[in-house]
């Protein structure tokens, strides 16, 4: 029995030394904001399913920005966002429409599948048509957003200093190939693409055709985190976690070997960036760090990216927290 206790203690001690953040220097730099959909109208996420029209359940508007517009992206960057996430669909006239929904019926005055609609038609739609915060009694954005659905080309042109995480909404490999062609034709836009994710086929096709680009899909994320959970305690980083974007739900993060400092250092050493999401309770990885309470889930020395739906709120809160931390460090 005594030998067993000694063995267990020795193993526990070894695991602690291999994975404690106390004995490693976390990656340098400061936390960075990744603004999901730019600055946009938010909604209560509870009960939302794939076919839920979220424009019909927005909170009372606090600002005039609509998601995935050039104005909303600029507002996110003005708030302090380092990266803006946006959604794309490849239309029949070979343009990338920047719009979230698979169909047009929820948010716009149009109907049909987004990717099946020519960009020339999409440009005529009112993308604020369907928004309501009071069950359809009033529509505060109706008539104010005609023609504001941008193309990806327009985004790159209007915001040349921006960085974007591109979400493929389909499983069409042609989307990845088309994006690669676009970046080859305009090499100056390559620096604007922080990464790609979403549909596995277009994501993997883009990564194959654009050297050095990072990206992820559901399968690669599960492979990375699952294999790291299995043997990351050894300090070995699985190939699925190398040269990629590692998205981590905040409520799972404390269970990762070496979280936060040693985990982040390991990912940095294999060429990956860490994106901290909000709490994950099933469905897609799209919940964000959206409140002061959520900010308690972000380690104070975290130097990765924080995914948020409220960049205009979270960026100032993070700034105040960093200022307070720096002030305390100077006093010490």
Automatic annotation (TrEMBL):
<feature type="signal peptide">
    <location>
        <begin position="1"/>
        <end position="22"/>
    </location>
</feature>
<dbReference type="GO" id="GO:0016787">
    <property type="term" value="F:hydrolase activity"/>
</dbReference>
<keyword id="KW-0378">Hydrolase</keyword>
<dbReference type="InterPro" id="IPR030395">
    <property type="entry name" value="GP_PDE_dom"/>
</dbReference>
<dbReference type="InterPro" id="IPR017946">
    <property type="entry name" value="PLC-like_Pdiesterase_TIM-brl"/>
</dbReference>
<keyword id="KW-0732">Signal</keyword>
<protein>
    <submittedName>
        <fullName>Glycerophosphodiester phosphodiesterase family protein</fullName>
        <ecNumber>3.1.4.-</ecNumber>
    </submittedName>
</protein>
<feature type="domain" description="GP-PDE">
    <location>
        <begin position="31"/>
        <end position="318"/>
    </location>
</feature>
<dbReference type="Pfam" id="PF03009">
    <property type="entry name" value="GDPD"/>
</dbReference>
